[in-house]
Amino acid sequence: MRTQPDDDDERTSDVVRRLLTPRLRRVDLAVAGLLAVLGFAAVVQVRATQEDGPLATARQEDLVQILDELTNRNDRLRAEIGSLEQARREITSGTDSSAAALAEAQRRARLLGVLAGTVAARGPGLRLTITDADGRIGPDVLLNALEELRAAGAEAVQLEGSVAAGEQPASSVRVVASTSFLEGEQGGVVVDGQLLRPPYRFLVVGDAPTLATALTIPGGVVDDVAQRGGRAVIERSEDVLVGALRPLGEPRYARPAG
Amino acid sequence: MIPALALVLGVTLGLVLEPTVPAALQPYLPIAVVAALDAVFGAVRAQLEGIFDDRVFVVSFVSNVLVAALVVFLGDQLGVGGQLSTGVVVVLGIRIFSNAAAIRRRVFHA
C-alpha cells in the first residue's frame, strides 16, 4: 500500500488516502485521545471565558488595577451622590417652606373671607328678630342695632327679611364693612340693593351674653323697637350659621399700597 | 479520520457536559490549549509532508502542553505571569502561522 510517490501531488493524495483508512493501533488511540482532550479543553475554556467574563481569567495584577479603577469610580460616584442629595435636600426644604407659606396664605384667606363675607361662618351667637307692627322700623333702627352688635364684638352678621311683609324672613344679606341701609320706597329697607321687608332677623356670631347685654341696655335697641311699636326678640344659640355669601368684587379704585 | 472524529467527540462532550474549569487550572488551560493547537498544526503539516510519526506527535503534544503550563506557572511564581503567558502565546502563535503557511503551500500550491 505504501508506495513512494514521485511528486508532491501523488504524495498528497496518498496521504489523504492513508488518513481516510481506519487504523487502530495503540498510538492511534493515543493521538485520538489527545485530540479529544484538546477539543474538550478548548470548548471548556471558551465556555468559561464566555460565562465568567474577563475577570475570571484575569491575572492578579490586572485584577488589582481593575479594582483600583473601580474604587476610584466608586469614590467619584459617591461624591456625585452626596452633591445630588444635598441638592435634593435644598429643593425639598424649599418646597416645604413654600408649602408652609401656601398653608398660611390659605389660613389667612379663610379668616379674611369671614370678614369680607365670602366664606360662611358658624359659631355661638344669637338671633335677633325685629317685628314691625306700625311700619315705623326704618333703616336707622337696623343700622343702630348693627352698630350695637359690632360694638359688642359681633364677628359675622347676616340680615334676613321677608319678601312680602308679615311672612317669615326669606331673603338674606351678609353684612360686611361696606353694607348700606336705605329706606325702601314702599316700606321695608334696602340693604346692599336688596329689598327686605319686616320681620327682620339678625344672625350674629359672637359672644352671646355680651351681645344680648348690649341690645337690652335701657334706651338700647330693644327699647327703641318697643317705642316704635315693634318687638325685638333675642334668641341665644350655641350654633348660628351665617351662610349668606357675597361675591368677591375687585375694588374699582382702591389698590393695595405697600 | 479517527483523530478528526475524536476531536469532534471532544468538542461534543465539552458542549454537553458543560464542566467548569477548576480554579487551580484556570491560568494554565488557555495556554495549554494554544500549545496543543500548535502541536496539532505541526502534525498536520508533517502528515502532508509525509513525515508524520505518531509517537513524535504524542510526545510533542504532551510536552508542548506541559512546558507551556510550566512556563506560565514559573511566571506566576516570579510575578511576571502575565508577560510570560503573553510571550508564550506570541511564540506559539508564530509557529501556528508558519505551520499553517506550510500547510497552505502544500494543499493549494500557493
Q: In short, what is this structure?
A:
The complex is a heterodimer of chains A (258) and B (110). With 258 residues, chain A is an alpha+beta fold.
- Oligomeric form: heterodimer
Task: Give helix % range of chain B.
Answer: over 70%
Question: Major β-sheet of chain A, in short?
Answer: 7 strands, antiparallel
Strand content of chain B: under 5%
Approximate shape of chain A = rod-shaped
The radius of gyration of chain A is 51 Å
Tally of DSSP β-strands of chain A: 7
Order of helices and strands of chain A: HHHEHEEEEEHHE
CATH C-level class of the domain at 121-242 in chain A is Alpha Beta
CATH superfamily of the domain at 121-242 in chain A: Protein of unknown function DUF881
Helix content of chain A: 40-55%
What does this structure look like?
The complex is a heterodimer of chains A (258) and B (110). Chain A is of the alpha+beta class and 258 residues long. Among the domains of chain A are: 9-53; 121-242, 2-Layer Sandwich (Alpha-Beta Plaits), CATH 3.30.70. Chain A contains six helices and seven strands; from the N terminus they run αααβαβββββααβ. In chain A, strands 1, 2, 3, 4, 5, 6 and 7 form a seven-stranded antiparallel β-sheet that branches. Chain B has one domain (23-108). Helices cover 82% and strands 0% of the residues of chain B. Chain B has helices spanning 2-17, 29-49, 54-78, 81-108. Classes of the chains: A alpha+beta (258), B mainly alpha (110).
